[in-house]
Records
---
Amino acid sequence: MSIVLGPNQYGKSEVRLVRVDRDTPRHRITDLNITSQLRGDFRAAHESGDNSGVIATDTQKNTVQAFARDGVGSPEAFLLRLARHFLAEPQVTGGRWRAEQYGWERIGAGTPDGAGTSDAGAGHDHSFVRGAAERRTALVHADDAGLTLLAGLSDVTVLKSTGSEFSGFPRDRYTTLPETDDRILATDVTAWWRYDASFTDAAGPADHDERFAAVRELLLTTFAGLHSLALQQTVFAMGSAVLEAFDDIAEIRLSCPNNHHFLVDLEPFGLDNPGEVFFAADRPYGLIEAAVQRSENTATEHPVWSTIGGFV
Ligand SMILES: O=c1[nH]c(=O)c2[nH]c(=O)[nH]c2[nH]1
């Protein structure tokens, strides 16, 4: 038996990058957390400490920062630019570049509308308040087959106060959950969708910001519009709506906790509770996860998914 080096990658994780666009007095903030990881011929470094082919992780961090001097644009476009830069080195045959974007809202602008700097025309020119937990995400994966682009969002917290049921499930000696035809449905949506090559190709007309906003809106309006018989049904409907609307999205994966809201028993106080007072439990929670795919794509799992932690 001999011991051999298996799959490996290395790079700089979580480069916190804030760019201020200040070409006019109305500044814009792009706040990103970027990870760069390279794959390729790095055997010599692992086996004998020969660093002659190693692009230092510090250099990768510096490259991220230097590229930002020209502007960041969308997280997708920025990652594609980084990927192409590092792949030009002969020892780099693949890699993984990942971004999370945090939203900043203009102070005085009113309601936030997704990660990024809201620029609806209202609000302060150069003072911002950090938005909700929601993050916009992007990932570029490179291997022998080329570049694969994922876009996504994390922890988009949504709730509907009616229009949700759960009944008809089997009962055994451990089942205590009552059936309900009217409950709160609440979740934190995490989703990744995979673009096919026609969208990923930088030569094309891809507007990543516009597309991100359209997918996010579709996920939210589907959540709102569907009378839900189960969170599973809602998750599948949200994914289906995205695949139906955009031919160049090959697949979408969703992970949605069921943030349970339990009706409080007010009877001990001589009060009824017609669906008005709830206890919001933070754990345990149901966890509903699904890949929504096109039937022609189901035979093999795309390798990009093995680079995403957890189910999505
Ligand atoms: O939408 C739901 N799906 C479930 O699978 C489930 N299980 C449960 O206890 N409550 C719910 N709700």
---
Amino acid sequence: QNNTYDYITVGSGPGGGPLAANLAKAGQSVLLLEAGDDRWTALDQEIIGWAFLAFNHPAQRWDYFVKYHSDNELTLQNEHLTWRTTDGGFYVGTDPPSGAKELGMYYPRAGTLGGCSTHNAGVALRPSDSDWNETAANMLKYFIQLENDHTVPKGTPGHSFDGFLDISPYRDQRVGIFEAPTHMTTAGHRVDARNPVIAVLNATNSDGSKKYPLTLRTESYVTKILFNTTGVNSETPQAIGVEFLAGKSMFSADPRFNASVKGTKMQAFARKEVIISGGVFNSPLLLKLSGIGPKDELESFNISVIVDLPGVGSNLQDNTESGLNTKAALNFTSLGPSCTFAFPPDDPCLTAWETGVGDGGPYAQAAVPDAIMLKSSVAALNERDIFMWGSTNAARGFWPLSAESQPPADPPNTWSYSMVKMHVHGKLGTLNLTSNNPQDMPEINFKFYEDANGQLDLQAMVEGIEFGRKVVNSVPTPIGPFNETSPCPGNVPCDTKDYILKQTWSHHATSSCAIGADNDPLAVLDSEFRVRGTKGLRVVDGSAFPVLPTFMLSLKAAGCDFGGSR
Ligand SMILES: Cc1cc2nc3c(=O)[nH]c(=O)nc-3n(C[C@H](O)[C@H](O)[C@H](O)COP(=O)(O)OP(=O)(O)OC[C@H]3O[C@@H](n4cnc5c(N)ncnc54)[C@H](O)[C@@H]3O)c2cc1C
């Protein structure tokens, strides 16, 4: 049958893309199904500094709206709460026009070949060993296989120089101020999960025939995992394939979605395994729609229960984020050419990037150039847990850009510190179905800071803001003194904790299909990423772990116990 493969992988982000490519390189026939399409050499993907254009691009963005609190009174005070206006547009703020419907906090995602690694900021921090407590392997070896290290001389032990992921300029776990490591080439071109897929698809033998048995189907949104529940081993359901809708924009998070365009229902089958890599929101959504999840929830939507797995969609967590915004006494001016950060043909920065002149110019630089790594007083396992960076753009969260909702222009004396709380303590987040229609979006609530664990995260964030204040307050004239605009306008003492609580944002969600031990009732996966209670089904993506760890998971899942994998 020509719709049968050894493996089917669903989703081509850091979890699914490298995994499908590596399985095919190992001689397995693989069907890679991706809901979005391939944007080929889109400049907004390739220039990391243009990431904000990519994550707002209607051809690849998936608009998720989430809640951060159970108490909607807190949500209503978030300055970036997004509403759908009666004319179908967006309003962002706390004073919506009459008739507007509350959507939630905007949470960018990518529905495109390469997933969110095509629009993210490319920061490539080496994960802490403690991230791997549940996986029985030494994961550092997968990091080493993954990287093409530009930071140390070739041949340096403990580093690799032929992995597919270009990492510059450093990787380790120190506390201090560093140049941020970024997954891009030394010429400033983004490297992402799309690269290994395209490399394997394009590889040919000397006679010109296709080298590896990888089939990519874009615009193929998987709606259901198919199981064999009959026969000798019927007590353990075996995943045998998937059902999908072939067509453009089949998921309602896609801004181009049109409910009246139905798509074509198709099926494909796997001889060995179905691997789900739809990302932190779509993997648990797909499991639930397929009958794997909390029994009561599935039954309330008339979904036949294949395995009662209460952990699917729970344990959701995220790096909580906030920022310190100030104005310096002097304006900041660029020492280099004036970049447009858009698509005009005569942008001097684009010419420099294309030709490599002057080290490629500003567009060849990392989007997040400086990494301030701190350890708060409540850091888990005594490991660094705050990642901050300074910028001349204000630190603020995300919202969908449209004619009506544009960020305010930042004055030229803007100085900010954005802050990400790593190794979060809070794990109360949930993803629940809203219907049994696979095209409908789930309901997501991170429930930040709602228990004692979450309060520790809040405390760490306060310390991050205080650190930022200490730095700006130590800057002498003529650049200082700095005037704080938030959390505490005019440097007048205020309740920083309350500000963070109400104005939080985030965009690194994980763990909605968590790996866990046999005795953990909320464990969804075992340490080999197999979905508990099933056969032939694994989840390999950010729903188990964050992005760089996800690239590493992808290698472990493909059995890459060999040298460089480019
Ligand atoms: C704006 C932004 C900036 C970020 N910056 C950084 C950063 O600097 N550093 C960092 O480490 N992390 C960053 N991240 C997070 C990081 O990009 C993600 O954690 C990572 O991409 C997750 O990989 P994934 O494979 O789990 O899922 P994704 O990257 O979300 O990929 C999932 C893929 O599956 C496809 N898909 C989903 N459902 C289906 C389905 N049913 N059928 C078919 N296909 C499907 C989607 O279209 C998508 O292509 C950022 C994220 C965002 C949104």
---
Amino acid sequence: MARAIREVKERLKLVDIVFELVDARIPISSKNPMISEVIKDKPHLLLLTKADLADPEATKDWIKYYSDRGEQAIAIDSRSPFIEKDILKATKKQLANKIASREQRGISQTEIRAMCIGIPNVGKSTLLNHLVNKKVAITGDRPGVTKKQQWLKSPHGLSLLDTPGILWPRFDDQSIGSKLAFTGAIKENLFAADDVALFGLNIFTKRYKQRLLDRYKVTEEDLEQPLPELLLAITAKLGMNDDYDRASQRIMLDARKGKLGRFSLDFVSEMSENDD
Ligand SMILES: Nc1nc2c(ncn2[C@@H]2O[C@H](COP(=O)(O)OP(=O)(O)OP(=O)(O)O)[C@@H](O)[C@H]2O)c(=O)[nH]1
């Protein structure tokens, strides 16, 4: 981690602004806690990626949460070709002083230099590809794929450093680990599948229970049972006999593929005052 931080700090000197990517479903859990310290006063835009998979209400709450704290956050689907306009607008807002100062000094430079930073699998390569309108970086479903380094130019004046800063998430807290695993940000084999599925089921029974009823055809009574019983009921409904490990994998896969609808696992209402 120390080396990754050193490298990010070096690259920060080259850019006007940092695009920090977090997963909209888990904006807190997918944030490396040291990022703010590393970025310091560098202008910075928080991009809530995979917003197409997240609970829109929760995302709205997060945007307001950050805005109330003077931080600009926008929700994006990194795969959308139409995101550059939003990002450029927000970037210019962040850099208004710098742009005005350049103009005053007669500097005609309009190029804005930026770098992406975020934990693995949060959508850095996908975002870069869409901003520069071509396939420029390796993308993959598994963490740790981005390796290349080059400057990339978007058609509208953004110059992006294609060595995204990759900082690993901290998951010494079990619930953060479960959230990262459930959404696919870290390899699921770091955790027992049934533990992660039970964690997800716990949130779904509280917030999205209709999704479980619809997808797995379990009953209201099943939802009232202790979570391991519910998992067994789902396992049976999936025709997987007692293979609750396989059923757990299926539940996680369903969630990641959007088959359980749009959901979030981090919520503003759960933030304590100490988290600010
Ligand atoms: N639904 C959805 N999927 C996304 C979005 N952004 C990225 N993905 C998917 O998430 C997976 C990971 O995306 P990458 O762009 O490879 O993520 P990365 O941050 O570059 O990952 P590393 O190279 O591991 O650091 C890919 O399967 C993408 O298609 C998004 O906004 N919405």
